[in-house]
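chain and backbone:
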Amino acid sequence: MVAVHCPDLFSQIIALQHRGTEYLDAVIEDERGEHYRITVSTYGRELTPHWHTFHCHFDQFADDDHEAEFLGLIDWIKGLRRDEVLIVTEYEGDRLVRCGTGDPAAVIRPSKGRRAEVRSFSGKLDAVISEGGG
């Protein structure tokens, strides 16, 4: 599917093994360094993108449409790289409490006593928001 849909997206595809399970890690390097690296794992029959503190799953169960899931993953990565998807990580002190995605138009309010760190792929929308909103 990579060769058909996105032959130039990944800089490397690495075959790995963990506890007898073979899987692939596809890597998108960025000239800005490791912090901007995006990886996609196929471990556990799932397509799992990783960036910064966030990961999510594009499931690949036996009866699913693998091509549609792969294309959904590619669209998600493109949205992340265009700052259409933000990564929002909520902390209580130094402890990571929750991590998810956010829309750039969304109002982000961390829970009481917490702070949220918003990361955009370009860095232009990055912010740290305290409980009081600033």
User: Anything to note?
Assistant: The two ends are 44 Å apart (CA to CA).
